[in-house]
Amino acid sequence: MDHSAQSEDQNGNIELDNRRKRIVFRCHHRGMKEMDIMLGGYVEKHIAQMNDEELDELEVFLQHHDQDLFSWFIGTKPVPDEANTELFRKILDYYKDKSDS
Fold it and tell me: What is the pTM of this model?
């Protein structure tokens, strides 16, 4: 690998690390403690394995209001189709599995 390709790769990794750090911060500072715990816990455990596409999906998901997210997670409101994504189901399954343990 030549020096410019190595430098470009390092810059890409730094940008990805910074993006992940921003997302983790956003998940832990939602404004609703329950969502801080739910999203923050899931994301901290899984973000290192998430690719760019999954991070994009997560950033879109984080645009939903906490009250809506919480209602969907606890089942007091139906999950709209646009929010009923694989990511939503993974987070939901993660907490169901934790509560079953």
Answer: 0.79
